[in-house]
Amino acid sequence: MNEPRHGGAEPDVAASPLIRMRDIRKVYDTGKIQVEALRDVALDVASGEFLAVVGPSGSGKSTLMNLIGCLDTPTAGSYELRGESVAGMNRAQLAEIRNRRIGFVFQSFNLIPQISTYENVEMPLLFGRVARRRRRERVEEVLARVGLADRMEHKPTELSGGQMQRAAIARALAMRPDILLADEPTGNLDSTSGGDIMDLFAQLWEQGHTMIVITHDTALSRRTSRRIELHDGRITSDLRNGA
Description:
By secondary structure, the chain is α/β, with parallel strands linked by helices. About 30% of the residues lie in helices and about 25% in strands. The strands form 2 sheets. The protein has a 6-stranded mixed sheet with strand order 6-7-8-3-9-10, with helices on both faces. A 4-stranded antiparallel sheet has the order 2-1-4-5, covered by helices on one side.
């Protein structure tokens, strides 16, 4: 595994942030009690940043990821993505945002086992109504970028854990999203495979991708350009790595 690197693209701090969150509050009402998962969260993320979100279980990491990824909406506060307010969007508009502008990578890979790696990576392109020839070009391109050009006809069950996560990353990249959003991407991998995925994330960042990683993995969080820490639903630290 390579040594930690901090040489990715410099975020454009002069431009408007890619993500702008203000006074974000998220409350889950169970009927008997209310659980405040996020409290007064303010967060800007510039294009080209590699951000790690860390914190203990129950700190609000997954809730923040769901809000950033438009999988959920805040109880209060504002969220702008590329200057566009997300709060007023309907379900169809949010689905369009998720498909075109945010690439998701999950701990459990979320690949469909019955179809090939190629077909798994092609799925968001089908939903995005991309033409067949362009789909082929795009799938071959992203599979080559993650080192799976020779595995595209294999089903996920024929791949190792590390290869399955690479396939999931290729699928996340297929629509050329604004943000790559990863939830514990090394959580189901051994140390060697996890190190390979960290190397791949560093390469993608160096190529100009905006990366947000929710992680317990301290080795991964050290390799990002910035790290925020959550406790009890609040951001308690915001540090630049290597500064």
